[in-house]
């Protein structure tokens, strides 16, 4: 029986994953900024579930939640950094307040949670940290440039982290979903303010933003199946460092790899020319 600590459980992946973890008989610390939205998740799970108020941008709440989880269950086996928001705007259209708020949640909140949980995992020489990224952490799209930037940051942080903690018995896994029916493009994402749209971006960022909104609720990804896939990966003897979720994410990731290889190869000679000449 593992103890899972999951952030952002009011909707989407967090909610589905919390329900799946509890259904299989594990323990779960189920968190959200508003605990009224998660009480139903823990209602029938008795002592195996703990619902906590948590805003990951508040270090005091992060520390208090980790302490409460450790006091209740003796430690945290799996941390799932799922809490996050989106933002739709061209880079030039974006506002500082929205950009900084998204970085506070998607990057700094994730970092705060990770650093709060690591001491206990290091002491036990075991644990798994699951960081939610996105296919947008591997490749960028118009209208979500700053969202992509937060997920690229999560990718870089996680890749360094697993090199640091795997020798200590701690595993780190990035989850990279494509389009899923999580309402990510609905209530959990803001967009450029009226009057801030720039006509020159109507056919790029504007069209992409409209497409994201129009497809809300009809995305191919099933969050319940994604939750089961995450559990399967966490339980594997050697979990992947990166878990793509959904066919579109898989296809887009391979397309990006092909694009990189093609461009790198085309410019190989110029790239190598920047080194000091070899002798002998």
UniProtKB/TrEMBL annotation:
Pfam family, one: adh_short
Entries under InterPro entries matching the protein: NAD(P)-bd_dom_sf, SDR_fam, SDR_oxidoreductase
Keywords: Oxidoreductase
The organism's place on the tree of life at top rank: Bacteria
Family from the record: Belongs to the short-chain dehydrogenases/reductases (SDR) family.
Protein name, UniProt field: Oxidoreductase
Organism name: Marinactinospora rubrisoli
């Amino acid at each position: 029986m593992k103890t899972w600590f999951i952030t952002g459980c009011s909707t989407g992946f967090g909610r589905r994953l919390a329900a799946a973890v509890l259904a299989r008989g594990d323990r779960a610390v189920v968190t959200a900024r508003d605990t009224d939205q998660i009480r139903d998740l823990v209602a029938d799970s008795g002592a195996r579930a703990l619902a906590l108020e948590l805003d990951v941008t508040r270090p005091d709440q992060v520390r208090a939640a980790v302490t409460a989880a450790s006091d209740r269950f003796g430690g945290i086996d799996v941390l799932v950094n799922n809490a996050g928001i989106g933002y739709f705007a061209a880079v030039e259209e974006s506002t500082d307040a929205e950009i900084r708020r998204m970085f506070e949640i998607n990057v700094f909140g994730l970092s705060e949670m990770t650093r709060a949980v690591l001491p206990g995992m290091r002491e036990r020489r075991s644990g798994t940290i699951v960081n939610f990224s996105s296919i947008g952490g591997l490749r960028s799209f118009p209208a979500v440039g700053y969202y992509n930037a937060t997920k690229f940051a999560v990718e870089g942080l996680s890749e360094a982290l697993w090199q640091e903690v795997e020798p200590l018995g701690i595993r780190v896994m990035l989850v990279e979903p494509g389009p899923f029916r999580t309402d990510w493009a609905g209530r959990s994402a803001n967009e450029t303010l009226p009057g801030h749209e720039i006509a020159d971006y109507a056919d790029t960022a504007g069209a992409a933003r409209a497409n994201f909104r129009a497809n809300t609720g009809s995305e191919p990804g099933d969050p319940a199946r994604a939750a089961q896939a995450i559990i399967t990966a966490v339980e594997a003897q050697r979990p992947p460092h990166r878990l793509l979720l959904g066919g579109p994410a898989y296809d887009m990731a391979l397309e990006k790899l092909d694009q990189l290889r093609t461009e790198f190869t085309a410019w190989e000679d110029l790239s190598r020319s920047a080194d000091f000449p070899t002798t002998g």
